[in-house]
Write a structure and sequence with these properties.
This protein has 165 residues and is mainly beta. It has two helices and 14 strands; from the N terminus they run αβββββββββαβββββ. The chain has a single domain, classed as Deoxyuridine triphosphatase (dUTPase) (Deoxyuridine 5'-Triphosphate Nucleotidohydrolase, Chain A, Distorted Sandwich), CATH 2.70.40. Bound molecules: deoxyuridine-5'-triphosphate. This is Deoxyuridine 5'-triphosphate nucleotidohydrolase.
Length: 165
């Protein structure tokens, strides 16, 4: 059974009222990276390839609708997007992040994996861009939902506590 958005919101920080949806909490994009070196997935262990952070630009022309708002201007390619919220998956639950459909409607997609019980961090997703895309920093790109789930242990992997200042 999936939990309510109000329940999910208790495990997301920071969260504004407008991010809380009936069945989950909207996540925003805080940073975007482009991988520049090979990574490796081994039978034991893995190495995450080096990345470069994409700098958002700020339009200053008064006629621009996004004047003053840092905006990632992305050409087609694969990017790693970091969410703006710290997420904690409570025991007895599993998390899923689903993309906002407006991304798909703009020929982009957010690919995500399983969020384990016990994980805390500011996680990441793979942003696939198939057509030039302007993404304002802080824009909502995804929704986090929680389902009740049995588990033996809690998450204790290398991403525990990632990206928390
Ligand atoms: O789209 C996702 C899915 C998960 N996570 C976080 C939460 C999850 O608990 C953690 C680890 O995910 P997973 O277990 O799939 O990664 P792994 O490659 O198996 O890492 P590890 O070896 O640490 O288990 O990463 C994300 O940031 N983004």
């Amino acid at each position: 059974m999936f939990r309510s958005g109000a329940f999910v919101a208790d495990h997301v920080s920071p969260v504004a009222g407008e991010q809380v949806q009936p069945n989950g909490v909207d996540l925003t994009v805080e940073a975007v990276f482009e991988q520049v070196e090979p990574g490796r997935i081994g039978r034991d262990g893995k190495r995450i390839g080096e990345r470069e952070e994409i700098e958002p630009s700020v339009a200053s022309a008064p006629e621009d609708t996004d004047a003053g708002v840092p905006t990632f201007r992305l050409s087609p390619g694969g990017y790693v997007a970091r969410y703006g919220e710290t997420i904690s998956i409570p025991e007895g639950h599993v998390g899923y992040v689903l993309p906002r459909s407006s991304l798909m409607r703009n020929s982009a997609m957010l690919h995500t994996a399983v969020w384990d019980a016990g994980y805390t961090g500011r996680g990441e997703g793979l942003l696939e861009v198939n057509h030039d895309l302007e993404l304002e920093r802080g824009a909502r790109i995804a929704q986090l939902v929680f389902a009740r789930a049995d588990h033996e242990e809690t998450y204790d992997g290398s991403y525990q506590g990632e990206n928390i200042e």
